[in-house]
Amino acid sequence: MNTRLPTSIRSIGAAVAAIVLAAALAGCGGSSSSPSSSTPGGGTSVSGKDVFESNCATCHTLADAGSSGSVGPNLDDLKPDQATVQHQVTDGGGGMPAFGGQLSDAEIAAVAKYVSSVAGQG
Q1: All domains of the chain, ordered by start, with CATH?
Q2: Cα angle vertex 26, ends 23, 30, to 5°?
Q3: What pLDDT, in 10s, does the model give residues 12-37?
Q4: pTM exceeding the 0.85 threshold for the entire prediction
């Protein structure tokens, strides 16, 4: 009995596997939407927690955000300072993609302030 699949079926299987892998890798980073809310002065205020939940939680663990990602470092253990978070989010490195071209300066500043203020607290 011949149990080998025809080449066309194996090719389709390989293509599906590649698509699944690409989708999984693209998941780190979430959406690139800009969560913000109106302030009494008519400006906008960016929530660092919202930015984290939308862009970082799939890869990083942070108790305050209720995230348990395991691709990137556990931020509760790492307890990075604000400057470190801002640099890492902007420029990436060590396997993390750069978000400098995807997030606004205000979003990056907000998420850096948020992470540095809550990491290790939960």
Answers
A1: 7-118 (1.10.760.10)
A2: 115
A3: 444 333 333 333 333 444 444 434 44
A4: no
